[in-house]
Design brief:
The complex is a heterodimer. Chain A is built from two helices and two strands, in the order αββα. Chain A is of the alpha+beta class. Chain A folds into two domains: about 30 residues; about 40 residues, no CATH class. Chain B contains five helices and five strands; from the N terminus they run αββαβββααα. Chain B has a five-stranded antiparallel sheet with strand order 2-1-5-4-3, with helices on both faces. The chains are: A alpha+beta, B alpha+beta. At the A-B interface, β1 and α2 of A face α2 and β3 of B.
Chain lengths: ~70, ~140
């Protein structure tokens, strides 16, 4: 009986952890950001609020608005 | 209205994620577009501004994407040519970049002189010389 409740607790804990990770990843995917790819194969990611990102984000917003009329 | 060459038409047919695409040169002149002139011009100006600001982060920039809440903006630069495209949220970025690069390459090909684009006449495949000896020869 005691062993069974331990397993149930473990399953619930694992499920909660997996759910939290999935939600975190989903939120990160939706966060506004700029990804810059360079000729040497390197990648720089600038998240909203970081230095240099806001100017790029506002240009991109204007571009998207122009595309959608 | 700016031209919509075959390469750009194919791009929007193949890549259903792409909503709009504009090809421009480094001076901001629209070379080809899927949009009307006015919108293409505004989009090209914004793309040039975006690329200029991005290149301040590093000169060897080849491509970029900007993930916004309601869509994603892609820019790919290749020499004097730049292609920019917009998609809805959460596109397959790798595929979009691949399609944009292919389109830019194809556009470069479309503008080459016709003589260069003329397909080569196909030759019949050469018959393979058999190295296997006939059974009779092998027996002797």
């Amino acid at each position: 009986m005691r062993g069974r409740s331990f397993v149930t607790g473990l399953v619930v804990a694992a499920g909660s952890a997996a759910g939290a990770i999935a939600l975190g990843r989903r939120a990160a995917r939706r966060r506004e950001r700029v990804e810059l790819y360079f000729g040497d194969g390197s990648l720089v990611t600038l998240s909203a609020g970081s230095p240099g990102a806001d100017r790029l984000l506002s240009s991109a917003r204007r571009l998207l608005a122009a595309a959608r009329g | 209205m700016a031209q919509t060459p075959d390469a750009l038409r194919e791009l929007t047919e193949i890549s259903t994620q792409i909503e709009a695409a504009v090809v421009l040169d480094r001076e901001g002149a629209v070379v080809a577009s899927t949009l009307d002139d006015e919108r293409a011009g505004r989009l090209a100006a914004a793309a040039l501004e975006l690329l200029g600001a991005a290149e301040e982060q590093g000169e060897s920039l080849v491509q970029l994407d900007v993930v916004l809440r309601d869509g994603v903006v892609f820019v790919v630069a290749d020499g004097d040519r730049v292609i920019t495209a917009t998609t809805g949220p959460e596109p397959t970025a790798g595929l979009v970049f691949y399609d944009l690069k292919s389109c830019l390459r194809a556009l470069g090909g479309e503008e080459k002189p016709k003589a260069a684009a003329k397909p080569r006449a196909r030759r019949a495949p050469a018959k393979k010389a058999s190295t296997r000896k006939k059974a009779d020869d092998a027996g002797t």
